[in-house]
Fold this sequence. Notes:
The complex is a heterodimer. Helices cover 39% and strands 21% of the residues of chain A. Chain A is an alpha/beta fold. Chain A has 2 domains: 287 residues, Aldehyde Dehydrogenase, Chain A, domain 1, CATH 3.40.605; 180 residues, Aldehyde Dehydrogenase, Chain A, domain 2, CATH 3.40.309.10. In chain A, a hairpin with a 2-residue loop joins strand 2 and strand 3. In chain A, helix 2 crosses helix 8. Chain B contains 21 helices and 8 strands. Chain B is globular and about 65 Å long. The two termini of chain B are 14 Å apart. Classes of the chains: A alpha/beta, B alpha/beta.
Amino acid sequence: MSTLPAFGNEPILELRRATERSRLAVGLGELHLPLKVPVWIGRERRFGEELVSTDPGRPERVVALAARATPAEAEAAVATAATAFAPWAATPAQERSAALLRAAAWMRERRAWLAALAVRECAKPWPQADADVCEAIDFLEFYARGALALRDGAGAQLLQMPGERNALRYAPRGVCAVIAPWNFPLAIPMGMTAAALATGNTVVLKPAEQAPGCGLRVVEALRAGGVPADAIALLPGDGDTGAALAANPAVATIAFTGSGPVGLELLRTAAQVKPGARQLTRVVAEMGGKNCIVVDSDADLDEAIPAIVESAFDYAGQKCSAAGRVLVHKALHDALVERLAGAVAGLQVGPADDFGTDVPPVIEREAQQRVQRYIAIAQQDGEIVSPRDDVPGEGWYVAPVVATGLAPDSLVLREEVFGPLLAVESVGDVDEAMDRVDALPVALTGGLFSRNPRTVQRVIDRSPVGNLYINRSTTGAMVGRQPFGGNRLSGTGTKAGGRDYLLHFVEPRVVTENTVRHGLVV
Amino acid sequence: MLVEASASASLEPEIQRVGRALADAFPSHRANPLKALDNRAMELAAQDAELRAALFRFVDVVPACRSLDDLAAHLTSFLEQVPTQPPSLRAAMRMGDTRAGRTALGAAGAAGVRHMAHRFIVGEDPQSALQTLRKLWRDGIAASVDLLGEATVTAQEADRYAARCAAALATLAGAYSQLDEQPLLECDAGAPLPRANLSVKVSALTPLLRPEAPQRGQRDAAPRLRGLLRQAEQLGAHLHIDMESLDSREAVLELVLDLLAEPEFAGGPSAGVVLQAYLRDSPQTLDTILGWAARTPRAQPLVVRLVKGAYWDHEVVEARQHGWSVPVFERKADCDANFEALTARLLEARPLVRVAIASHNLRSVAHAIARNHQLGAGPGDVEFQVLRGLGDDLGQALAARGLRVRSYCPVGDLVAGMAYLVRRLLENTANESFLADQAHGVPLERLLAAPEASAS
């Protein structure tokens, strides 16, 4: 039986100590770029150079050369995974979990090397690259335990009557297509993949086209841990590859994290029963938000300002949990804006491999242009209070921006920017702030700064978001501690890193047996 | 180790003797520091964790409340979270039901907090603190002034803090130059000691302290700190750089030691750093400091203020949340034993450094006195520091015995002082606080017992 120690988060490195910092920096030296990333189905590898990922801070540095999966390869990957499904589903849960735990150990032994890849390929600053590796390990450890708990605890709650035996068990659904983002390039693909594998599904992983190198490491870790080659395929590609997977009738589950438009398209595709389909496609989708932090008049700005800066500008605002709006009580508005603008003026914009960097480059040229468009809109609709032009010339840098006085219908207040742009609005009171929050069609994360327990409770009662943070930053959800995911149009309400998450990758089956023979209970 | 142990053993009778003599010398009308606070709330709070939390939250939010009504609303909303309310609190809660009641309650709450704050904060600004500082000097007690303020999150705020510090140095130097001579307070075996003394925080001199990038904060704070060092040198004042949480230790210590090693500061000013005995690796930090002192000749030896450390809860919580080994001792006796070991090393390292023992623990202080005596040094060759409002009785007892005492005196407005105040109050009512033990009648022999470090 399972004798696993209780789950605990993989400790992030104590980077306030110089010895730990030098340990990480060693990882860069161990990277040999560019990586070659194949389409990897079973034991077959097809290399190619159709996709190129580059260092966002130094675009001429090629990080990975990847093949782009063809439609035929997408179909072959799903077919192989479908063939591998029966044996993997029949593998005892204990053995499947053991494979995930070995994958976690594989990653743990290579932390600096893996973090260094996230630094290079996605411009994750060191502390966050390290945290991404830790979170990937956490997902493996957490779901390995969760799958065993699901096996052991299922059906315990059923009512039992004399003469009948009722049992419920959870069976895997089949092939799961994992369509992953680049912003947590190891953790999120690993999390979705590990959940599917732990529960007995097979997986075709399509990493983000910006992060195929990290996707390769995810699959390598799982295969090194003992997941059968046919049960986990790597399918580097772009949006067409994802669409091909979603349209494949043999795909039982789509696990997606990414933008709203893509997620909604996947939901539409999945909702149409394809010819030849033998089951309904389920979608686990985690999409964007327009995350608001409410600051009441009794907030402690000494604590609120650093937390807001972290929420909005860490990783250049490229987290789905990042704050895009601050709704501050009018009594504190001017003080907050002045101090926030001053704090943002001091942020260091620079390369991800510099420990001193606050704001790294955004992921690619298109992202840089998109953020700059929104900044231009903010300039038109309001005022930029933290102008600066001291960003590095090379690389996809965007200066962090605070905008105020935006017209209520400004796009900047409604659309997810996914970049270092924060809008500050003045409100009469917390209720007005919550009205504005409630008017949004998305509900991912939210924040509140208040020192009145009654206000805190009122906001908790009114808040629609999936993850609400009180008197702290709105980013940095931890596996097992802050199960993460949004409501409304932000997602399917599934909570990654939470106990219920695995239920989305299984189907319940109930068996009722009559135990009466000739009037006797036997 | 054997020599060490036997030296400690032979010192024990002297420690006991000094400790008893000190206890006898406490001002008799206020033998009990907690009662001296003259505050029933503190007594109540020390007994009930929920109530303590409610009161601390209230103290913390007072500066942000916009009206008496707002104050009362906060007070009652904190108190309603206390499961078992003493009758006096239930009465307070009922007052919250009417507007007039809330106004009265808010006024009472604000007055209570202000009353408490005045015990710890000697003035709204250095000028208004002078009266208290002069009186302390006449009573034979020196001071180090600490300017309270908001956290520094912008460069402008760092500039403003540096300007306040510069102005404070000038005000203090001017005022102290007018005072009568106090030989014990202004020279030790080596040399004269500055009268004016200011404590500063690096976290207030830069908004860019980053645990994982200490150089950023150092680079940004250096010009401001250099300016203050120059001014202290010109005015003949002492500048002490406080230590804060472990997140900034590397930045602070390297910054101070680097700046003081610059040629222009070889002649002065007198300056100091802080060593926190609650950190498990504080002996290594002391190695760093002594190594630096040995290879950095300066006219005025570095002052090392030995403290227990004021960020214990923060360090424990941060380490636990991140899965790190806890950097501070979790047993009080281990911390106390380390304090004594560091005391001994510091005293033996003289004249490479000057030593300031900053503790309210009678045992730690008695140990330092006995050790100093054992080493054949004069009473003026070690300094004792106490916190204004908490260690006043101990300070007077030490001064009465002819020892050099410096009182750490926060200066600033009530709003800015609140965060500071809350930390002091927490410390005072914590379960393992020496002052709380003392106030609750723990027998003297237990208070003076040698700390037994756990085997490691």
